[in-house]
Amino acid sequence: MLPTLRQLQYVKLLAEHGSFSRAAEAAHVTQPTLSAGVQELEKILGAPVVDRARSGVILTPIGEEAVRRAGDILARAEDLVQAARAAGQPLTGRFRLGVIPTVAPYLLPKVLPLLRQRFPKLSLFLREDLTHRLIAALKSGALDAALIALPYDISGLETAHVSDDELLAAFPEGHPLTRGGPVSPERLEGEDLILLEDGHCLREHALGVCGMEPPRLGEEGFAATSLHTLVQMVGSGLGVSLVPAMAVEAGLAHGVPISVLHLAAEQPSREIVIAWRKGSSRGVEGRMLAEAFQASA
After folding, report:
1. 8 Å CB contact between 207 and 214
2. Which is it for strands 157-172 and 258-261: parallel, antiparallel or unpaired?
3. Do the Cβ atoms of 275 and 146 come closer than 8 Å?
4. Which of 237-260 are b and which e, b meaning 16 or more Cβ less than 10 Å from the residue's Cβ?
5. Exposed e or buried b for every residue in 20-44, given b needs 16+ CB within 10 A?
6. pLDDT value, residue 201
7. 164, 272 Cβ separation under 8 angstroms
8. I want to staple 182 with a disulfide (CB 3.0 to 4.6 A). Which of 222, 264, 282, 285 is the partner?
9. Are strands 122-128 and 93-99 parallel, antiparallel or unpaired?
């Protein structure tokens, strides 16, 4: 006898919510129903999956393994349902798209009207988050696709190209390096380089373009939580930075006393792509989304 999808969903919800009552509420069943389902799963596996403590639910090692495998099984089952519903009608119904914060405010306003025009039956659910969390959500089945920037480790994913986004050097207005043409990354080494906080892929892209190693713990002078904060810090004379051309074209630097120059580097850009889980039935729709984004990029 094999576990059912419902039993796997119950143990997954237990892991997420930490209690039988909240897991039952999330599953839209009564607590006794959920508890009975978990007990039946334990009989099938021949081992307990949870320890029932006063402080809440604690997964056993078998329970943790069940949750890990359940995520993939449930994601593939949902893929099957979505594929059946969308057969012959791609990009209709619900589609969950993740977007990184250094792209969302600058590209989405241009592409969303086009998506509504091309795919009127599409119900798009957007989630803005950092790249590593979006990729984890893709692999667990919590997202159907994500708009991210490369280079990044995308093992287990497939991608479709959207655009190349040039990285530009940003200086306080009147900075000596703004008097010439494009500036080489080497000339930034003596400057206070302001980066986004750790976790933003743009931080790694900026360091890569400059050929710099990440600052050691405690040695970094300033770090920004967002691109808007970053350009304000540059405009206040706290240092220099690299900003994406996509954001500058969307008005990121409008009204801020900074100067933006091209970089004299071999590949001063990041690649914007639509990514989805390898083998996912949403791959065709991911490519269609990429084409729509290309038309607006």
Report:
1. yes
2. antiparallel
3. yes
4. ebbbbbbbbbbbeeebbeebebbb
5. bebbbebbebeeeebbebbebbbee
6. 86
7. yes
8. 264
9. parallel
Contact assessment for residue 250 and residue 228, using Cβ atoms and an 8 Å cutoff? no
The reply to whether the predicted model has a pTM over 0.85 is no
pLDDT tens string 173-208: 989 888 877 888 888 877 888 888 878 888 888 888
CB-CB neighbours of 93 under 10 Å: 12
